[in-house]
Structures are given as structure tokens and as C-alpha cells.
Design brief:
By secondary structure, the chain is an alpha+beta fold. It has a domain of 164 residues: Alpha-Beta Plaits. The protein is built from 24 helices and 9 strands. The strands form 2 sheets. Strands 3-2-4-1-5 form a 5-stranded antiparallel beta sheet. Strands 6-9-7-8 form a 4-stranded antiparallel beta sheet, with helices on one face. A hairpin with a 3-residue loop joins β2 and β3. It is elongated.
Length: 555
């Protein structure tokens, strides 16, 4: 039986893999535990690693360092791929206000951290660990540890210990802040929902179908391509009908005339203007169109060919080539109006109207192969990781900071992933990954990282809590968690009259805390918290990583 003991205690590759696998497996099993419908989730891996290390089951320091950094890279890169497409669009319309409020939460958290540092004299690396745990932000922890390593050439275990001590009450503090705001403003959830329904807070980019009877003399006898030049609105004419006589696919050269009925796809924000310009809205259901339109069918076609990636609809000329009409494009679950300059990406789903033979021909050009989507695009992933590490290693100077600033192994890959997922198709790079593949990459990365952080910090964890004043770190973490959330929450509700469901998502997103989002969704009973969470998440994640590095560099 000695070989079993040696497998866990004698340093080596096999021992390292066994210990890591045991830590992650036990941590994931414990993550299923819920108290009052709240779980610490994957962070149980960190606590399990601390327990293993405390009882002497450690791994080689060099192997530990490599796996920890590689896990961090996989984690932040997959996050960047996920949030990249929405990162820039999140600044549009109401997203600007939400992101500015989230920025306020980040800045206040940093200010509170600096204040506690000066008041107590606690070293800044430890305070950054407490900050990362208090706002449950693991990439910030990784960025802080990497920056400290770059400066001093060695690790500081107190960063990981501060994170582990502050994390449990960090989760509870975020949820408690949401409840305190609800109590302070005496919010009634049923009334909030009634207000929400009354306002009809639809996305202005959401697509709608509308049947219109042509009644504008200015467009009689004109082709659709000419009509679209007369009004600066986004819409697609899918079909044209003349009473009960005939229905046909609408193309760029289709002529419109008095009394013709047309089926239009447009955005919510443009509907009123489009209807007023073309004629008047009529009641004609989709069933009516399908009954009359015997030869025309709508069908979803998926872009899966690399040759199409990055090309616009005008480049492909699908309408002229196949006598079809592209009415909508679904990207990341959102239906968008098909525009001539719309750049297609792998994974886009096009709604095409035409006859069976024409659609089959267009589908052949676009790919339409689910098997192709299941293939991982590893080339672009590893190119992105390499570029991210290069970017993260580039030093740049900020006035007043003695040391050059680096984005590090957390910031560099995160930024490159965001840029590649957004602009990669223009460079003919296929950056598409299925949600399951992205989730697998992310979970493997974060599991390896947390296991290594726990194993690295666990040796002195108990001694720090009992003999070195670590217990008071919990109080510091609570202050860092609650104060910024309450201040911004009150401002958002009192000054900007933010709906409570949106506010819950905002505060959960500004701390990048999935358990708080789960609580908010369960409380709201709708997806409003998830929408605002996703709106502020990309910017918040970037700022959390950057601020953690700057605090290490400046102090």
C-alpha cells in the first residue's frame, strides 16, 4: 500500500496530476451544496485545495506555477471569446448609463481598498486579494498574482489567502445588498413588473414582421432597391402580393405599385417610420401569407464555410444569384435585420425566403453543416492565446508609475480574445466556438487555476486566520463588498429611477458574481437581470483585471 501513499506525497508528474484531479473532483462535488438556495459554486475547488495543502498534500512548485498560469490563460481567453461580440454594442443606448454605474462600483471598491490599506497598514498585495474575493472576481486575483510575480520574481501567498477568506461573505454581501436596497426603497416586485410591462421595454434592435399595403404615390412603379434609397431606415421586403392573385419573393428588382401588399421585416425602432413611408399597416397573418404563397418557403440556413466568413451580403449577392431573399440574421440568439453591408460570421443563422431549389443552392454556398460547427477552431484559439501573451508582456509606461505596466497573462489574452471575436472575421479568422466548447474550455481553465491557488495558499492558511489577524480580513472584505454596491444602488434607484430587476443585474454584473445573478433571476422571475448583467459584464471584467494590476504596481 506504500505506492498509494507515494502517489499522493512524492513529487512528480503523476503525483501532481492525481492531486489536482482529486482536488477538482472533490471541489466540484461540494459545489452542488446549497444553503438557502445559495452556493459557492466552483470556488469549493479553492477551499479543497487549501485543505489538501494544509494536510501536506502539495505538488512541485514549478508544475504548480505552470498549471496555474495556463489555467488562467484558458479561463480569461474563453471569457473574452464569449463577451467579445457584445462588448462594443454594450455601450450603445441605455448600456452607456448602466456601464457608467458599473464603473462607479469598480472605482468605489478600489477607493475603499486603498482607504483600508492606509488605515490598517495591511500590505497592498493582501488587500488586492481581499478585494478580489470580496467582489468574487477570479481573473482579478490571477492578474494580481501575475503582476506581483513579474515585479518581485516570487509569489505572495497572502494574495490567495485574502481571496479565500473574503470570498464566502463576498457572495452573501452582494445578495444582502440587493435585499437591503429592496427594503430601503420598499420595492414591491409585482408593481415593478407592472411598470415594466407598461413601459414595454423592448429592444430597439429586435426585429418584427409587419404587413403593409402600398399607398405612397412617390414609390409607385419603383423597384425595391430604389425605394430603400429614399428612406434611411433598416427594413427588408420579404414578399409581395397582389390581392389574392399571386404572391412572389421580393427581390431588389421587384417593382412596387399601388395596392400591392408587402411583408416587411424591420426593427422595432424603425417600424412606425417604415409603415408611414410605404403606406398603411394591414391585418394579414403569417398563415395568410403561407396559404397564398404555395411555392415559397422560409428556412434557416447556417453559415459554416470559412470562405464566407467576413463577407457581406452585398459581396455574396445571394438575391441575384439564387432568386431568394435574406430577411433576418440570428447571431448569438438575437434576430437582426439583414442589411447589405452586414458581415457574416461562422455560426450566423440566416432566414431565407425562396423556393426549395433556390434555398438548397444558397445553403450549399453558405455551408449549412452542423458537423462543421462542432469542429473546434483550434488554430485561431492558439493564435489568439499567443498574441494575447505577447500583448500582455509588452511594457508600457504611465506617468507617475515607477514600474512599467503590463497587461499580464490575464489582461493580454482577455483583450485579444475580445478583439478577435469581434473583428476576426474581417481578417478571415474563424473565431466561432460552440457554447458547450467555450464552457468546457472555461471550466477546465478556472478549475486548474483555483486548485493551484488553493494548494499554493493552504500551507499557512489556518495559521494566518488564527495567529496573524486573518479573521479581521473578513470584515474588510464585507466593507469592500457592501459599501460600493449600496452607494451606487441607491443612486441608480433614486436618481435614475432604474427598474429593480435591471438594478439587480447591474449590481451582480458589476461584481461579476454568478451566484448573485442566479438569485436575481429567481427573485425576478424574468430575464431582465440577465440582460443588464450581460450589458455591464464585459467592461467590468476588463476593469477588474486592470485595477488589480494597477494597485500592485502603484502601492
Amino acid at each position: 500500500m506504500e505506492w498509494i501513499s507515494a502517489l499522493f506525497t512524492n513529487e512528480g508528474v503523476a503525483q501532481s496530476v492525481v492531486v489536482l484531479a482529486a482536488v477538482i473532483a472533490i471541489g466540484l462535488l461540494l459545489s452542488k451544496i446549497k444553503v438557502a438556495n445559495i452556493s459557492f459554486g466552483i470556488t469549493w475547488i479553492l477551499f479543497t485545495g487549501i485543505a489538501f495543502s494544509h494536510f501536506g498534500m502539495e505538488i512541485n512548485s514549478q508544475i504548480l506555477h505552470f498549471i496555474k498560469e495556463f489555467g488562467l490563460i484558458l479561463f480569461v481567453y474563453s471569457i473574452g471569446l464569449q463577451v467579445g461580440p457584445s462588448f462594443f454594442s454594450s455601450f450603445k443606448q441605455g448600456g452607456i448609463q448602466l456601464n457608467m454605474l458599473a464603473l462607479g462600483v469598480v472605482l468605489l471598491g478600489v477607493l475603499v481598498t486603498i482607504s483600508i490599506h492606509y488605515i490598517t497598514g495591511l500590505p497592498m498585495p493582501t488587500m488586492v486579494g481581499i478585494l478580489s474575493g470580496a467582489i468574487t472576481n477570479t481573473p482579478g486575483l490571477g492578474a494580481a498574482q501575475q503582476t506581483y510575480m513579474d515585479i518581485y520574481g516570487s509569489a505572495d501567498p497572502s494574495i490567495g489567502m485574502g481571496y479565500a477568506v473574503a470570498y464566502p461573505l463576498g457572495v452573501l454581501g452582494i445578495i444582502s445588498s440587493l435585499l437591503l436596497i429592496k427594503y430601503f426603497f420598499k420595492i414591491n416586485l409585482e408593481k415593478e413588473m407592472a411598470k415594466l410591462e407598461k413601459l414595454g421595454e423592448d429592444s430597439p434592435d429586435e426585429t418584427v414582421k409587419v404587413s403593409i399595403r402600398i399607398a405612397n404615390p412617390a414609390i409607385y412603379g419603383k423597384k425595391i432597391i430604389e425605394v430603400k434609397r429614399l428612406i434611411d431606415k433598416h427594413f427588408v421586403i420579404s414578399r409581395v402580393a397582389k390581392g389574392d392573385e399571386w404572391v412572389k419573393i421580393a427581390g431588389a428588382g421587384t417593382v412596387l405599385d399601388k395596392g400591392y401588399d408587402i411583408l416587411v421585416i424591420t426593427e422595432v425602432q424603425d417600424k412606425e417610420s417604415v409603415v408611414a413611408f410605404l403606406g398603411k399597416e394591414i391585418c394579414k397573418s403569417e398563415d395568410s401569407w403561407s396559404v397564398i404563397d404555395k411555392d415559397v418557403i422560409p428556412r434557416r440556413v447556417i453559415v459554416t464555410k470559412s470562405a464566407v466568413n467576413g463577407k457581406s451580403l452585398s459581396d455574396l449577392k445571394l438575391g441575384k444569384a439564387f432568386d431568394i431573399t435574406v430577411t433576418r440574421i440570428n447571431r448569438a440568439g438575437l434576430d437582426l435585420v439583414a442589411r447589405a453591408n452586414f458581415k457574416l460570421q461562422i455560426g450566423d443563422r440566416l432566414t431565407i425566403v425562396g423556393n426549395q431549389e433556390s434555398i438548397d443552392a444558397a445553403a450549399s454556398l453558405l455551408g449549412n453543416s452542423m458537423d462543421r460547427l462542432r469542429e473546434p477552431n483550434l488554430t485561431s484559439i492558439f493564435i489568439g492565446i499567443a498574441l494575447g501573451i505577447i500583448l500582455g508582456s509588452l511594457p508600457f509606461f504611465i506617468p507617475g508609475i515607477p514600474q512599467p505596466v503590463k497587461l499580464g497573462l490575464a489582461g493580454g489574452p482577455l483583450i485579444v480574445a475580445i478583439l478577435m471575436s469581434r473583428f476576426g472575421p474581417k481578417l478571415k479568422l474563424v473565431t466561432y466556438t460552440t457554447m458547450s466548447a467555450n464552457l468546457m474550455l472555461r471550466e477546465i481553465g478556472i478549475s486548474l487555476f483555483l486548485a493551484c491557488v488553493g494548494l499554493d495558499a493552504g500551507g499557512g492558511f489556518v495559521d494566518t486566520i488564527i495567529n496573524k489577524g486573518g479573521a479581521v480580513w473578513i470584515l474588510y472584505g464585507v466593507v469592500i463588498t457592501v459599501v460600493p454596491l449600496l452607494i451606487i444602488g441607491i443612486i441608480a434607484r433614486w436618481r435614475y429611477k432604474l427598474n429593480y430587476f435591471t438594478l439587480m443585474g447591474l449590481l451582480s454584473g458589476s461584481t461579476t458574481d454568478p451566484p448573485a445573478l442566479a438569485f436575481a433571476n429567481a427573485t425576478a422571475g424574468n430575464d431582465m437581470p440577465a440582460v443588464s448583467y450581460a450589458t455591464v459584464y464585459p467592461l467590468t471584467m476588463f476593469l477588474r483585471v486592470l485595477s488589480a494590476q494597477l494597485l500592485i504596481l502603484l502601492f
